[in-house]
C-alpha cells in the first residue's frame, strides 16, 4: 500500500464485477482499481473505456505475482476460483472471492485453509448479508426482540429465459445450478442468523434442458439443477425451509425477481425482501405484520461515503461488499463473511446434493 490506498485488481471482468465490485471500488476513497484481468480481450477493451486507466492483462498469474497489487476480487466462473485464489494467496494478496468458493466443499475448505495459513484477509462475496433489512433483522434477532428463534424461511425466485445459461449449466464448470448460484446465499445468511445447520433433507431438479443459445444455436444440455429446496435442522434445534428456482414465471420484476426471508421467534417474526430492502416487516404475537423503515445506522456501513438515498435500493447495498473487504484490510481484522463462512455454506449445499441423490436426511460434514 505504497500510495496509502489499498490497490485492488479485478480478476474476471464480467457481469458481477461491472454490476457492483467496480462501483464499490470507485466509491471507496481508501482503495483504487489498479489492475483488471480477463482472458477475453474484446471485453478488456470495453472495460478500459468503461472503468478507466489501470493495468489490463489476460493472465491471472501476472496479477498474483505483481508487487504493486495488495488485494484481488475474484469474479470468474466457479471452476477457476480455487486455483486463482491459491495463486494469489501464495503471493500474499488479500482475496475476496465470489460464491460459491469452489465447485465442491473440498475446494472451498482448501481455499480457506490456505488463506488462514498465509495470514491474508479472505472474504466470500455473500451479497445479501449487506441488505439493510437483513442487517436490521439480524439486529432484532440477536438483541432478543423476536424471542427464541424457531423457524427460518427463504424463497428466492428468478424468471430467467429457458435458453443456455453458459458455463453455469455444466457440472464441471459450475458445480451445481440454482443451488450453488442462488440458494447458497440463503444458506449463508440463515447460518449467520440462526447458527450452523446440522442436517438437511434436500432436493434438486432440472426442468429445462437449456439446449439452445439465445441466438437459436444448439448447445450441450444443462447438467445442473434449476430448482433447489431443503429442509434444514440447525444445531440450536431451530428449523428452516428454503426454495429457489430460476424458472418462476411471472416473478421477473425487472430482473430483480422475488425474494422473501423470514425468521419466526417465540415473541415475533421479521421479514427481509430484496425488492424492498430499506424496509422490514415486523409482527408480534396477536398482531398483523407491519412495515417499518430500517433505522439509519443499518442503511450502510459506519464510515461509508455511500448515500443510501441514491440509486436503486435493491442494487446499491451490494457496493458495501468492497467496503467491508477494504475495512478488514485497513483495520487488520477478519472480513465478514470469510472463507470459513463460504466453506460452511458449501458443506451444507453439498449435503443437499447428497440428500437429493440418496433420498434421505444427511448430516453436514464441515
Ligand atoms: N455475489 C453475487 O451476488 C453474484 C452475482 C453474480 C455472479 N456471482 C458469481 O460471480 C462469478 C462470476 O459471475 P459473472 O456473472 O460475472 O460471470 P460472467 O461469465 O459474466 O463473467 C466471468 C468473467 O470471468 C472471465 N474469466 C474466465 N476465466 C478467467 C480466468 N482464468 N482469469 C480471469 N478471468 C477469467 C470470463 O472471460 C468472464 O469475463 C461466479 O462465481 C458467480 O457465481 C455472484
Task: Describe the overall structure.
By secondary structure, this protein is of the alpha/beta class. The protein has 2 domains: 122 residues, Rossmann fold (3-Layer(aba) Sandwich), CATH 3.40.50; 230 residues, Dihydrodipicolinate Reductase, domain 2 (2-Layer Sandwich). The longest helix has 20 residues. The radius of gyration is 20 Å and the shape is globular. The mean pLDDT is 97. The structure holds nicotinamide-adenine-dinucleotide.
* CATH T-level topology of the largest domain: Dihydrodipicolinate Reductase, domain 2
CATH superfamily of the largest domain: Dihydrodipicolinate Reductase, domain 2
Q: What letter string, H or E per element, gives the SSE order?
A: EHEHEHEHEHEHEHHEEEEEEEHHHE
Number of domains: 2
Structure summary, number of beta strands: 15
Which band does the percent of strand residues land in? 15-25%
Helix content: 25-40%
Which CATH-level-2 architecture of the largest domain?
Answer: 2-Layer Sandwich
Radius of gyration, in Å, reads 20 Å
Gross morphology is globular
Low-confidence stretches: none
Strand order, sheet with most strands: 14-13-12-11-7-10-9-8-15
Q: List all distinct small molecules, including ions and cofactors, that are bound in this structure.
A: nicotinamide-adenine-dinucleotide
Structural class by secondary-structure content: alpha/beta
Largest sheet: 9 strands, mixed
Question: Could you tell me the mean pLDDT?
Answer: 97
User: In CATH's first tier, which class of the largest domain applies?
Assistant: Alpha Beta
